[in-house]
Each structure stands twice: as C-alpha cells, then as structure tokens.
Design brief:
This protein is α/β, with parallel strands linked by helices. The chain folds into 2 domains: 131 residues, Aspartate Aminotransferase, domain 1, CATH 3.90.1150.10; 222 residues, Aspartate Aminotransferase, domain 2. It contains 13 helices and 13 strands. α8 links the parallel β6 and β7. α3 packs parallel to α10, α4 crosses α9 and α12 crosses α13. The structure holds pyridoxal-5'-phosphate (PLP). Pyridoxal-5'-phosphate binds next to α4.
Length: 367
C-alpha cells in the first residue's frame, strides 16, 4: 500500500497542539545553526530576478560543482532535493516491477519512492546494524536494476569503509546501477577509511549529495547527482526543466563556498554529539556510534520507543521514532546547538527513567 512520507513533526504544529513556550526540533538531521550566512545573502540579492524562468541547464551551479569537485559539468545534474532526484533515477533507469535492492533499516525516502513508482523493493538484513555489503552483492538477481546504498546510513549513522566498498563494486554486474547516497559525507569525511564516492569512476555508479543537511538549506530543496555522462544524460530526460528554483541555486552556489560555516557546523556537531553520547552512557540508554550528525537510540521495545518519543514531545523535544524506517524499537536524535542539546538532554533525563520503570513493571506483571 502506498504510504506518504512522514517527516519529523513541524515546530509550529507542536507549539499549537501543546501550548509550549520552548520547542526544540532534533528530528530531521538539519543544521541547527541555520542556513549558511553566505547563502542567505545570495538569496536576498537574487530576489529581483525571480520573475524570470531559470536556465534549465543550471549552468552556473553545475559549473561551480564541476570546479569544486574537479569533474566535467556534464557529470552533474541538480534537482529539487535528492529525494526528488531519487525519484527521477527510478523513473529513468527502471520500469514497473523492476527491483530495487537495499538494506533493511535504511533511509525511509527510498522505501516511499520505490513504492510510489510501483517498483519492487527488496531488503537485505543488516549485520550488527551495519549494511551487509557481501549479502547485498549475493542477493542481486536478474530482476535487480538498482542497488541503493546510503553512506553513512540514516538512521543508524554507521558507514561502510573504502575497503568494503571497493570489494563490493566488482561483484555488481555492469548493468545494475549502484546509487550511492552521500547525504552526510562532510561529517563522515572526518574518518580516514570513509570512501568518498566522487573519487570513483565506475560506469554503473551514481552518487547523490544534498545541500539540505550540513549546508543548512533543507527548506530550499537542492540536491545533485554525480555520475558518468551517459547516465546523467538519461536523467535530463525525466527531470523537471526548472529545478532547483532560482533562489535555491544561488543559495547553493554561495553555501558551497562557505567553508567557515561548514567548519563551525562540524565543530558544533562533534562537541554536542560527544555530550549526548556521554549522557546516554550515564543514564544507560543503548545507542549506536555515529559518523553523521545524529544518533540512533535503542529502546527495549516498540512500545517503549513510542512512549519515549511521545513523552519527549510532551516536554517540547521533537525527535524521530524509527518505525517507518523499519526499526520500531528505536528513535533518532540529531545534535543541536549547545543550548538545544542541553535542553534535549534535560528532557531525556526526565523522561527515560520513568519509561524504563513502566516497562519493567509491565514485564513483572506479565510474569
Ligand atoms: C540518507 C538521506 N538521503 C536523502 C535525504 C533527503 O535529502 P533531500 O533534502 O536532499 O531530499 C535524506 C534526508 O533526511 C537522507 O537522510
């Protein structure tokens, strides 16, 4: 059955519902520092031109991307967020009932997009919360047209290494497309063995990146695909002609150059993730290590995770319950500003012990 994408709860909606004066949203892996300041300036400057249709080739943005990543402009196509581009990729390279193969416990957008396009989604079990690339390679069948890999994965926050990826790619038949989703590459790039997808030139590999996360432009909707020219040319046939919009493109061009902002964001993330991990250890919440800007927390049951999510919401903290990602006993929280993180940790310290007590009492009563 077709299910709509369920996003993290909007702040205004929760404020209306609960009559709370402080709400902190750490549910969508956004940049808590706001948009890149350079992007904001660029958008303001671009407003007087929005009566014009844009250049469908996205010449300026594509040229900037090509220069930044040392590739040819024809290896890029930009779109209205990577989610939209993933839909275009399905449209360009698969037909009804073709199979998309990926891991369990991966990005919800892929489940939604695949169903929406009436493609078949096949999920390979994770191995200790990690993508099992060997099992995925073995599971490729004649029906498989696309293998989707998110690195690092959302929501687990774990990544596969360069060595794992380089062992995996030769096992994939040349007529199967590998879609490598690198939404959090700047965060994970801190790890030496993280494979940068743009360093590879496989004929059947395309990489997607987004400006929604570390660049702080989730609301503008800009993403891009990088791949061999013959694949990018196919995507031009299905993408809408005038996306991303003019302000989004100008914002993206400016944000791509905002190294100070990226550095500030990476530092803020590192500092606040550390605070979170320490606190989770102190109060005994099971959590996974992370290479991105969020942490997955494991609760003892689905009911616990639902209660935990709801109790946090009641106190003004929006996090993400991961039922829709196929991990119903888990929630995900991203790092905030220093103040937001402190607020979140206060809420969690209040909520978690009572949830666990309730869970233990329920178990005791049923025995
Ligand atoms: C792994 C992954 N891919 C893609 C996206 C979607 O990004 P965009 O805002 O560019 O559509 C997200 C957003 O949560 C994500 O986590």
């Amino acid at each position: 059955m077709l299910k709509p994408y369920k996003a993290g709860k909007p702040i205004d909606e929760l404020a209306r519902e609960k009559n709370l004066d402080r709400i902190v949203k750490l549910a969508s892996n956004e940049n808590p520092l706001g948009p890149s300041p350079k992007a904001m300036e660029a958008m303001k400057a671009a407003i007087p031109q929005v009566h014009r249709y844009i250049d469908p080739s996205n010449f300026k943005l594509v040229s900037r991307l090509a220069e930044k990543y040392g590739k040819r402009p024809d290896q890029f196509i930009c779109g209205h967020g990577t989610d939209a581009l993933h839909g275009d990729i399905l449209g360009a390279f698969t037909q009804t009932a073709d199979e998309v193969l990926t891991s369990e416990g991966t990005f919800i957008g892929v489940y939604v997009n695949t169903r929406k396009h009436t493609r078949t989604l096949r999920l390979v079990p994770m191995n200790n919360w990690r993508y099992d690339l060997d099992a995925i390679a073995e599971a490729i069948s004649p029906d498989t047209k696309i293998v989707y890999l998110a690195n690092p994965n959302n929501p687990t926050g774990l990544y596969f290494t360069r060595e794992e990826f380089e062992n995996f790619m030769p096992k994939v038949p040349k007529d199967v497309l590998v879609l490598l989703d690198e939404a959090y590459d700047t965060y994970a790039g801190e790890y030496e063995d993280y494979p940068d997808g743009l360093e590879y030139d496989f004929e059947n590999l395309i990489v997607t990146r987004t400006l929604s996360k570390i660049y702080g432009l989730g609301g503008m909707r800009v993403g891009f695909v990088v791949g061999p020219e013959y694949l990018i040319a196919e995507l031009h046939k299905v993408r809408l002609p005038f996306e991303p919009n003019h302000l989004a493109q100008e914002a993206a061009i400016a944000a791509l150059d905002d190294d100070d902002f990226l550095k500030l964001t990476v530092d803020t993330n590192r500092r606040n993730l550390k605070k979170m991990q320490e606190q989770f250890d102190t109060i005994g919440i099971e959590h996974l290590p992370t290479s991105a800007n969020f942490i997955m927390l494991l609760l003892p049951s689905e009911q616990c995770a639902t209660d935990f999510f709801q109790e946090c919401l009641n106190l003004g903290l929006i996090i993400r319950h991961l039922a829709g990602f196929g991990i119903p006993n888990a929630v995900r929280i991203n790092s905030g500003t220093d103040e937001e993180t402190e607020f979140a940790l206060d809420v969690i310290a209040k909520v978690y012990p009572s949830i666990i007590d309730k869970y233990r009492n329920t178990i005791a009563q049923s025995n």
